[in-house]
Amino acid sequence: MADHAEQRAGNAPNADQSNSTNDKPAQANQAKDTSKFNWVTGRFHCSLAAVFKQLRLQAEEDVKTRNGLRPANAPYEFSIADSDGAFTVKLEAKEAEKSVVFKLAEHAILVRDEKGETKFEIHLAYSDDGQCRLRVNQKEREYWQVRRMALEDLMFASY
Fold it and tell me: Which domain holds residue 119?
């Protein structure tokens, strides 16, 4: 996705072009430049494996942030661990241990609770405008929205 953004950023008109009184030539240049868009690289970054890796990195940051917000003597802690094509975000507390598992599957990324029950599935779509779209329950979501759907109850329940 970062390469995709860099590719598009390189095709954007410079500040002088966008401030001209006649935007039509700048728009024509943009249309011409997007014809050179490297869809193969964009589509590669929209694979389940690539999105899974990105979600894993972002979930790790969420865990670090949430642990940093705990009170000094908090009786709970969050962690993240990898195993067999999956990663697990855990809540470890004195009286409870809960978790959310993200599992890379052939057709989707599965999100399950500690009982193994499916919370939802993440499907991907590569749009005509070269964007990778995450779909949950037939609705497009941003990465942070998907992580919130998966982790909010775990990270903000009463302990």
Answer: 48-156
pLDDT reported for residue 33: 67
Taking only the tens place, the pLDDT of each residue in 37-57 is 999 999 999 999 999 999 999
CATH number at residue 74: 3.30.920
Q: What is the Cα–Cα distance from 94 to 40, expressed in whole angstroms?
A: 49
Residues 73 and 136 grouped into a single domain: yes
Burial class of residue 51 (count of CB atoms within 10 Å of its CB; 0-12, 13-18, 19+): buried
Q: Is residue 64 included in any domain, yes or no?
A: yes
Q: Which residue has the tokens 């690539």?
A: 50
Same domain, 27 and 67: no
Cα separation, 54 vs 104, in Å, equals 12
What residue type is 127 in one-letter code? S
